[in-house]
Amino acid sequence: MKAEIEVLQPGLFSTIQDSGRFGFLKYGVPLSGNMDSYASKMGNLILNNSVNSAVLEITQMGPKLKFNASAKVVITGADLSPEINKIPIDNNIKYTINCGDVLSFGKRKSGCRAYLSIKNGFKISESLGSKSWYEGISDFSKLEKGMKLAFKSASSSFYAAHAAVKINSAYLFQKELHVFPGPEYSLLNVTEKKLLAVTEFSVDKKNNRMAIQLKESIDNNLSPIITGPVIPGTVQLTPSGSLIVLMRDCQTTGGYPRILQLSDEAMNILAQKVLGDKIFFKLDSTFIND
């Protein structure tokens, strides 16, 4: 019998992701991939998987999953109160799941996105060199009730590890986002640059895998730019003065001034924020006097 996970309940928004889809930006294909690359990487390292192995990214409210074969799993990232057969389990710990067991999630305690990694990864077909789900490119765009996810049973492939992986989960609560100047940063005046540096921004309700908008705005005296390339982590300044931070499923070009660029670490921090959470930007010291 093929090893599968049956989706009893899909949760709020759960998708299969890996490191991303590279080499297709020139065709307008988003990078996609794990919103929090650190959490997904740590889960795969604990299981001695390739860091690019596909994982299940779970947003805020988790799914209910029934296993028809044994598996070794670990959950990283946000704490969404995971349970095996209604018995609470911890993040960042490797667990054995047996045939018939049910993995479920409860109340969100911290963070926004959790990652379910499974020994040997999920057996998902690739689209354009990646297993990451994206509507219009992959076979599926999100987890659905009744769906079955194939995997390789751990009973014939698992072996004991003799090293531990140390995980620092402090970033889940961090507010500071390390950034670099974007292509149009130099066009901002002194007042606008200061506002970027001292304003505490909060996550708006308009947030998803494509972009996260911030509630607070700053004065914007810049003109729109000729459409130019953008990547995940690009911070755009809209005509109204609001800021939009592009995330993993973002478009490949845009016409708003690109004033900042998030570091990889900052991307992981922001990926774990929910509506109302606070953040502030810290410009790399090399550019503070610009």
Could you walk me through the main structural features you see in this protein, from its secondary elements to its overall organization?
This protein is mainly β and 290 residues long. It folds into 2 domains: 4-170, no CATH class; 174-287, Beta Barrel (Cyclophilin), CATH 2.40.100. The protein has 3 helices and 20 strands. The protein has a 7-stranded mixed barrel with strand order 12-19-16-17-14-13-20. A 6-stranded antiparallel β-sheet has the order 7-6-9-4-1-11, with no helix packed on it. The protein has a 5-stranded antiparallel β-sheet with strand order 2-3-10-5-8.
Task: Provide the descriptors you would attach to this structure in a database record.
290 residues; Cyclophilin; seven-stranded mixed barrel; 3 helices; elongated
